[in-house]
Design a protein that fits this description.
Immunoglobulin-like
Length: about 120
């Protein structure tokens, strides 16, 4: 399993959110205040709302700040549903080599997240 995993549940339908593009970024550790973010991975959720291989199994992320960008506007647009949030970005800190699971509970007018297991 990848060190970093995610899944999305569409709480409006009670079903996994399939076909959501997710981009993983790493913040430049040299100057995190003014420096930008560097894209390090890209994937699309499967029929279970997951991306099982966002990172190769052998990749271990170095400690630092990361963010996941979830393209929610495109997801809801495919369903002809208007959404208030064109995207969701979840920023988090990796502190070691353990597994990190970052789930997203999503609907057109709200979202929540937590550190999963």
């Amino acid at each position: 399993m990848s060190q970093l995993t995610t899944h999305i549940l569409d709480t409006t339908t009670g079903k996994p959110a399939q076909g959501v593009t997710i981009v993983l970024f790493q913040q430049d550790p040299v100057d995190p205040i003014t420096a930008g973010w560097r894209q390090i991975a890209l994937g699309t959720t499967d029929q279970d709302g997951r991306i099982p291989n966002l990172l190769p199994k052998e990749v271990v992320l170095e400690p630092g700040m990361y963010k996941m960008h979830f393209a929610t506007k495109e997801y809801f647009g495919k369903q002809s549903v208007q959404t208030f949030y064109p995207y969701v970005e979840i920023t988090f800190i990796i502190t070691g080599p353990e597994h990190y699971h970052v789930p997203l509970l999503l609907n057109p007018f709200g979202y929540s997240t937590y550190r999963g297991s």
